[in-house]
Amino acid sequence: MSIPSQPFRVVSLNANKRVQSPPSLALLTAWLVKVRPGLLLLQEPWPHGREPSASIGSLSRVAGDSNVAAFAEAALPVVVVAHQPRWLTVGVGKHRIHNVYFPAGRSDATARVDLLDALAVGVAGERVALHLVLGDFNMAPKAEDGVFDGQPTVWTTKRERAAFERLLADGGLVDATRTVELTERFTYERLRGGKVSQYRCDLALVDRRLIHVGAARVGMDHAVRSGEAFTDHSAVLVDL
């Protein structure tokens, strides 16, 4: 498998099922021209039951469904490694890039734990590769990552947080946006009953080896969900 000779950018975004809406698609396409990803990972790209989009701007669909999908520039050597309903893995050279979309219901804590544990087994079992896990985790990894009306929420259980920490430890991963300042860390904000609900749930878990040698740089773009918004989640950008 070839290794890209040039750096490339991975963008992860929960599209809130709007990719096939012409106004949202136009805004998304214009934004992609500015950020120039080689690989675009989408969660909730379009409503369930719709035919997949073949392309978005200059990016062509690699694989995916209405939960998780991947689009890439033609020049990027992307291969599909595995595809499950909420977990799509692609390979680019030595990188294994996992696109995940966790179930969002209050009663789905066990399902989220199961997916976290499956990820830990999968990543730890292939340590020759350099892994990145990106997507919408629908949980708050730490208490300060989920706030309702200024107070930590009780949405995320201790079991989920323990499973999340196991994934980091067993997979040799770094929660790359964990140290972002509190006022900038939230990737999803919504009014509920007149009170603000805020979460850092769109994450980039990056192989510790990439972080240590400075081979991965992670950032967030909150503007995609404000002003002329085309989603309600922030985008996560990883330069490799």
In short:
This protein has helices spanning 22-35, 109-124, 158-171, 182-185, 208-212, and strands spanning 9-14, 39-43, 55-56, 59-64, 68-72, 78-84, 87-92, 95-101, 130-136, 146-148, 151-152, 173-175, 188-192, 195-199, 202-207, 217-221, 235-239. It is of the alpha+beta class. The longest helix has 16 residues, at 109-124.
Task: Describe this protein's structure.
This protein is of the alpha+beta class and 240 residues long. The protein has five helices and 17 strands. It has helices spanning 22-35, 109-124, 158-171, 182-185, 208-212; strands spanning 9-14, 39-43, 55-56, 59-64, 68-72, 78-84, 87-92, 95-101, 130-136, 146-148, 151-152, 173-175, 188-192, 195-199, 202-207, 217-221, 235-239. α2 (109-124) runs parallel beside α3.
Q: Helical element count?
A: 5
Strand-pairing-aware structural class: alpha+beta
Sequence of secondary-structure elements: EHEEEEEEEHEEEHEHEEEHEE
The fraction of residues assigned to DSSP E strands is 35-45%
Coarse morphology: globular
The major sheet is characterized as: 7 strands, mixed
Q: Uncertain runs with pLDDT below 50, 5 residues or more?
A: 1-5
Based on the model shown, name its key terms:
globular, alpha+beta, 240 residues, six-stranded mixed β-sheet, seven-stranded mixed β-sheet, 5 helices, disordered N terminus
List the helices and strands and how they pair.
Layout: E1 9-14, H1 22-35, E2 39-43, E3 55-56, E4 59-64, E5 68-72, E6 78-84, E7 87-92, E8 95-101, H2 109-124, E9 130-136, E10 146-148, E11 151-152, H3 158-171, E12 173-175, H4 182-185, E13 188-192, E14 195-199, E15 202-207, H5 208-212, E16 217-221, E17 235-239
Parallel strand pairs: 1-2, 8-9
Antiparallel strand pairs: 1-17, 2-5, 3-4, 4-5, 6-7, 7-8, 9-15, 10-11, 10-14, 12-15, 13-14, 16-17
